[in-house]
Amino acid sequence: MVSSVKLLILKKGEYTLWSMRMEQYLTNTDYGLWQVIMNGDEFVQTTQDDNGVEIKVPPKTAQAILARQIERKAKSILLLAIPNEYQLRFHTIKDAKSLWAAIKSRFDGNVESKKMQKTVLKQQFKNFSVSDPEGLDKAYDKFQKLISLI
């Protein structure tokens, strides 16, 4: 099934909105994609070679082949939805579940960075002022930009 919905590219500072939209996109496209991202691919079998390196065993059953296809599709969609400058960093991640976690870790930030961002925005809001030469239109645009960051 081909979706006519344009894939949303993740932008800095918009992880929460992006993640909600990606969840909706993936569940609407194929619910199995979202399940693979949330739960991992339980049909992937691995073994270790002589050097102790973990390798995937090729799927042998129709169910395992389908599960592998869904896993690849989910990972591909996630990779297509991140900015180009992060492709090299994220494309080596082995599965969709780990990729989602890495994207969240990179773009969602931690509690401390969110607190700092809130503090900065509050300060900008308190310091907001309009000068006469600036004009009402520019002041309105400046205010809208500040509000959109909150």
TrEMBL record:
Domain of life: Eukaryota
Record protein name field: Ribonuclease H-like domain-containing protein
Pfam families membership: Retrotran_gag_2
Species name: Tanacetum cinerariifolium
PANTHER family assigned: CCHC-TYPE DOMAIN-CONTAINING PROTEIN (PTHR35317:SF29), OS04G0629600 PROTEIN (PTHR35317)
